[in-house]
Each structure stands twice: as structure tokens, then as C-alpha cells.
Amino acid sequence: MSYKQEARATKQRERDALLVQRAQAGDREAFGLLVAKYRRRVERLIGRLVHDPHEVEDLAQEAFVKAFRAIDSFRGESAFYTWLYRIALNTAKNHLLTSRRPVEMVRAQGENEEGDGFDLFESQGSEETPERLLLTEEIAATVQAALEELPEELRTAVQLRELEGLSYEEIARAMGCPIGTVRSRIFRAREAIAKRLRPLLDTPENRRW
Amino acid sequence: MAHEGLDERSSALFDDELLPSEWWREGVDWQQLRRGWECYALIGAVLRGEEISLPNDRFIEGVLQRLAEEQPERGQALLPTTGGERAPLAQNDPEWGMGVAAAVVAVVGAVLIAGGTAAPSMRMAALGGVSAPELLQTARGKVGIPLARGEGRIALERQVPSAVRRYRGEEGGEIGGGEQERVRAVGYWPMRRY
User: Which of A66, A98, B120, B156 is at 20 to 30 A from B16, Cα to Cα?
Assistant: First the structure.
């Protein structure tokens, strides 16, 4: 792990600390934020072992419930996601063992406990309904169109954040502006895109929202 | 329904660029915040060209619902005292604390007395001149656990786990007018009032 990655991991640990502490004190809503934050990564992880999307969702939920039950045992010696990763992995493996299906311990190239490097849901394409495929295409097109319409400083800020993964401080240096300005630009960019997305996400077909 | 827009600080918190302690405030609309974060995550995924995972309010609500059904009392017992009443705990009852203290003193004292015949004056001094039966009586009164003799052990009422086990032995120091008794501490754990 490079110095930059290590520093980022340390920062991540610190950031999650209060949410974890509140969850340890029984605050389920704080835990809900951790769920919102890590749901996709957990689903991606489980999706490598279990190919039915419905099972993936159930197992991901199960993993989070198990994590909350055991949250008192989390001592903050590792990042929260690293701890959650193990719970999710064991949940998926146990499911495969009890359902007597072979455990495919595929460790994709570049995969690590942070869940990076996955080619997500590669086997789930066949489960996609035409409506869902259409919706995802619409969402992608809408985001790209909204991005193109953004003022350049907003577009650059959000791209440096989302594509390059730069911190606010690094973006501030790159763009020659204060961190507060970066924060504001990224927020405004996101909200402008989200405003365009809302009608799509509010449709009755989108049962998940 | 999608979120109606978050504030700048919630966006920064999403990026781990703000400590939750800097952000925390009362009256948070958790559902709106979670939906906002889901939407931000979706935008990020699209920009990075990742597989799109649609926002899933149902997922989080499902997890929270299960947690609420499983552990309804956990949050009440451990949440900060502000904004709600703690669940009543026996340990918070001052009478309970005094009772336990009296029981412990009684048991320790009785063990000292029953431990042998040497140095009786020291044993009595340690008890402050109070005999073991008197201390046990005090414990009964404070804790509210009747300690009845019988078949070599004490019957504990109200289904309280073994706090004190007391039995009559064939040997031991003289207590209370020549009656041979031995009292043994078996350990205790927090007792509930019923």
C-alpha cells in the first residue's frame, strides 16, 4: 500500500469512527449511514460468489445485520469496511456451504479487502430485465448530459473527485482555490446532476426507490 | 420519493471530508440523508463507468427494520441520556446497591469467622463487633432475598441467581451460641428486581 493509500485508509478509519461509536451505543440510524455508504461494496463482494441478485441482496442485508449484532467487538484496529468485508465474505461462504453449492473462491486480479478491482455482477447481466436495462441506460445518459451542462469549474471539481479520487485538499491545490470553494463546487455539481436524475428515480417502475 | 437535496456539509461528509462530529446535529432527516448519499453514489458510479447499482431505499429500511425487531431494547439502554429516558436498571436503584453491599460484607465477615478458630478477636474486630447472623439478617432485609436454611443450602426466592450460598457444615467455627455453620460466597452478578 502506497503512502497515499495508507493515509487515505487512516483518514477513512477516523471518519467512520464516530458513526461506529454511535452504532455501538445502539444508534441504528448512524448504522444506517454506514449501510448506505458500504452497501454497494458489500453487494459487489457477495456478487462474486453468489450469482442470484435476490440472494445477493438478502445476503448483503444479512451481513449488515450480523455486523450490527457484533459491532461491540469492533475495536477500530482496522478500517470498518475491512471488518465488514470479512463478515460479508463469511456470510456468502456459509450460504454456499449450507446450500451445498460449490464455493467459488475467485479472487479477481487486484481484489483486496477494500473490495476494489471487482468486475461487478458480471454474471448478473442475464438477470437484468429490459426495463431495468433501459433505466440504467437512461440514468447514465442523464448524468453525462447534466455533467456536460455544468459550468467548467463545477465539472472539473466533481470529475477530479469522482474520477481521479482526489481529496478536497488536492483538488484545491490543482484548481488554485480554497478547500471551502472545492466543497461548494462539488456539492453544487452533485445537486445539479441529482436534480436531473430525480424524475427517473421517482418513476413507479423503479420499485427500489 | 428521491431526496430533495442535501446541504454542502452532508456532501462533504459523504466524501469523508468532514468529521461526523463536525457535522452532527439534532433533527437529522436520516431517510433524506441516506437517499442523498445513494444518489451521490450513483452519480459517482456513472462517472467512473462502473456497473450501475440503483438506489435501494428498501435495502436499508429492511436492515433497520430487522435490527429494530431484534434489539428493541438495545438502543434504549445505551443511547445517550439526552432526549429520552433510560430503561430502568436495577443497579440504578440506591436500595439495590446498599443491599448488595450489605450482602457482600455479611458473606465476607461470616467466612472470616468460619475460617478457623485462631485469632477470634481479629475476626470480630473486622466485623466491627457484629455477629455473622446479624449481618446475614441485614443482608436479607436490604436485598430482599430471604435466606432460608434447608438441606444444607439456602433457598433463594424470586429466581435470583446464586448470590450467596449458605449451608450448614459438620465442622467450622462457633457462631451464634455454638451453632456450627459455614457460609460460602459463590459469586454474584447483577440481580433484577421482579
Answer: A66
